[in-house]
Amino acid sequence: MLLKSENIFLTNIPKSMFILFGIIVLVELVVSFFRYYFSVIDGDLALIVAPHENYAHVLQNPFGINLILGEQGYSASNRFFAHWQIYKYFRSMPLFLQNFTNPINSLYLSSAIFKIVIHLFLLIGISVLISGTLNIKSRQFIFAALLVTPLFQAYGQNSHIGLVHSSITYAIFYSFPTSILILILLPFFFNSFLDKEMKIGVFYKILLLFFCIYLSFNGSLGAPVFMIISSFKIINSVINFWKFSDYKINCKVLKGILKTIFEKDNLLWICLIVIALFSFYIGTFNTESQIGQISLIERFKLLPLGIVNEFTQKSGPLVLISSCFFNFFLLRKYTQFFGNTKKKKLFIWLLMFCIIYTILLPFGGYRSYRPYIIRGDSYLPVIIVLVYFYGYSSYYMFSEFNVKMKKLFISYIFLISCYYFYKDGWIEKQNECEVSSLKAIVKSKDSNVELNNNCSVLSWLPSNKFEDSMV
What we know:
Largest sheet: none
Structural class: mainly alpha
Radius of gyration: 24 Å
Shape: globular
Order of helices and strands: HHHHHHHHHHHHHHHHHHHHH
Helix content: 55-70%
């Protein structure tokens, strides 16, 4: 249920302004679609769709049971669903689109469609969390969407705070599961932190169990996020029991705590933790994680440098985290935000989530292309938390500030939004050289085609060796 002050604030805004807000959000969605369409194709897509021999094993062994039975490790051992999605989607969608366009365009259209779907899922999920309503036509939802829309960076700051990764493969591995996580956990979030109850029945619990399996074996984000949130849920029930026991510590209370952990309502969360841990275990057989490995201690030593690099190499992440700190200061000084028990608990859990998730990252292994452990893709859940906190705190303060403060705050939000819109730029044909090269290959009758363009072609880097194009 929304606060009365929020309703009053939004009701006082003219309807014409909300029409304008909705138009801005829709225009940005259309512009984002074209940005995604004109993005280059990364170097992993062809290897997964073919598939390369390194990725053939995971498509035949969804849950890695064969590894438990003694088979040697292979690439992407706990990432079946991500590989299966890419394999199926890019073997069918481009062919369907070729009824309307040429084969080359169908590839980029397929990529853009998947990315805009992820974009929509994330925008809807985050806006619902901020506004507290499922009605996408409501003033609350539209205003929340307007606040976070500029933060969807397709070009400018994408490598560090790109909610939808520029690489279609990484978007499916990281951005897509994150969007599903947000949507599937909405009832849990509403019941825990908002003044609005959502009924959780047997169907939802079965759905949550299914998505835990799906997301834990989709990529590297699902398992740790489910493990952290499930642990939070169990810990919260233990704290509530301990509080009811006047925070006493004796045999009776300890037995009660143990009973609380394994009570009926927590069995689902325990199952989710077990599934997540099993995915972690199967992930240890991933041969990609065994190349150029460094010790766990060394990985932890790299973590602080990774955090600094993530938030200082580009201005976008620095502006985002600075805005969150500034909003925190405003909430403390000028509002009663932290006087509300649920809102205070929300802030504490968000902070704890970011800390625990960061600590877990070194356990995921080391990659040479991610030299400081933390990078925009692997750190996406924390980036989502920052985007949410920025949006939610801004939304809250609009309803709480007096007229004078509100005018100043509008100017501040306007500047932040303009900054991100400016950084993302307009529509650039980033794939123009790649498309030109693909057209040259299509037109040529030779088995080996010499390309004069100095750009990547379905690869991560430019190459002048035909062997590099072999799958």
